[in-house]
Design brief:
Mean pLDDT: 79
Distance between the termini: 77 Å
Number of helices: 11
Order of helices and strands: EHHEHHEHHEEHHHHH
Number of strands: 5
Shape: elongated
Radius of gyration: 26 Å
Largest sheet: 5 strands, mixed
Helix content: 55-70%
Strand order of the largest sheet: 3-1-2-4-5
Low-confidence stretches: 1-36
Amino acid sequence: MTEELDPEKSLSNSEMETLKTEVSELEKLSKIVWPEDEYIVEYSLEIGFLRLSPATRQKLNIPVHIEILDPTTNQCFGNSFSRFILENFLGYDDVLMSSIKSLAEKEDNKGYLRNVVTGAQYHFVSRWSSSTSYVAAAVVMMVFTVSISMLLRYSQHQIFVFIVDLLQMLEFNTNITFPAAPLLTVILALVGMEAIMSEFFEDTTTAFYVILMVWLCDQYDAICCHTPVTRRYWLRFFYLYHTAFYAYHYRFSGQYSSLALLTMWLFTQHSMLYFFHHYELPVILQQAQIRDI
């Protein structure tokens, strides 16, 4: 099944025949034939059918159903405000994938989805929809977060030791040994961790931003968290927001993952500012007043 979205106009019957004859050239001329605001996806239960050209499908008498959707006329895209958000901010990729995934849930073999414009391919798989899925997401979150934190702290320790040795060399004129092996091990471990996380999130960008957020939060915990209240309760909020993001991503197969990641980061920033303003800053001001006295 092939779905196409054209926000400006819908195709006529003659243009549909042109689509059948020219779609074989989309692999080479996708950006020239189709504007960037159009979305064309194909779905099949077998991956081999998606790799065949339209001419080969017609030659083998493989039935193809073409469905053309227009956001300006189809009511499935919601009201005018929803269409505005989809067109200017979120895009139609997640809407198409979720709608086709709902159809694939009825099949034993969930099937495959192919984006004709970008060439990306997706495989629908069954995931737990019960409460145990949230437990699995929490376990994965703990493993990823603790592993990233340990690797980053070890790398910072090695860099700190190297800087101290460098200063001693400049001061006492002693020999210095660059910790190449530990740093290389940490770099390779981080690259491997990002690859594993990319398989879980199905997106390298999301995995990179999750690692970056964990590093920033780890720095905040090490530098800014000194009072007993902050050290006891802030990490609970951090793990709560992180678990909610992992659970959402796992439960809904990454739909609107970037928006969920941004929401999680804003909540995390709010908790950081709240604990620093209510518990850390008064202690800092009190210590400054004591020093002035």
